[in-house]
Structures
1.
Amino acid sequence: MQTPVSLETIRGTIVKRQRARFVYERRTPMVADLYLLGHARRSSAYVVMAWCVEPTPGWRVLRYAEIRDFERVGPVDVFRGDFDPYDRQIMTIDTQVLNGGGLRRN
């Protein structure tokens, strides 16, 4: 059985700049750096903006409700300089990485 993750865990992972491993959409294992928790423009559902390390590197907007078996696996070591909290898919921001303080910029 896959275990859902709490919003507080997502918020804490973002604020503490932690990398996470989880299963997305009940089948896809992922490793990602979480940058933002917000609401989707179309549905108002919670979404997470993340830099995915695995399986394919790149920015993704993930549906919070589809994240399962979540675990923190270490710190984010590089702050992505191309992070855009004003992505057009995001209506409102709940929690976000405020800046890259203490991290190398990419």
2.
Amino acid sequence: MTDMTEAKESVAPPLPSVELERLRRENAVLHRRVARLEKEAEAARALIAQTKALKLWDFTPYRVHPDDTWVAVDRQSASELLAALAGIDHWDPWHTRIEPRTQP
């Protein structure tokens, strides 16, 4: 059983009201910052999912031409997009296989 002296020593003295108010303001700022970051992260999740679902296909080596459902994308821009995605999502697009699209 602990005696009263030990119990009193383990209790921290109350913070001055000025310090307590400063901590409350800091806490409120941090709560707002976390809420903003969570909102940004949620928006980024949708972008990441859509980018991962992109069907990038380099048809040049296959000497075929995709139909009109495909849009041309600049190779450098596509590489930069995948690099940016890898930087924010820890996804490794460089090891994602790009398969030829079956031609009808």
3.
Amino acid sequence: MENQDKISITSKTLASGNRQVKFFIEDKEKPQYGYLLMTEPKSVGEIIEEIKMRMERRRSAALNMNPFFPLQPTQDDHNFYLFSA
């Protein structure tokens, strides 16, 4: 993820005990928002790193830019949802 993107998060605890994190990616060209379901407690920094990692994984799978590290076809990630704002 590019460094100029800013990620802000809000979260709430669900009845199941899991934590739902809503995040906003502030980007002038392509603002996005999404949800991440966390099953274990993590700090804000760890949550943001998890979002960045999943975004990068999604980009890599879509572009398949690295021919030296072939990726298996990605399965749906039912704990991570991303939308254009």
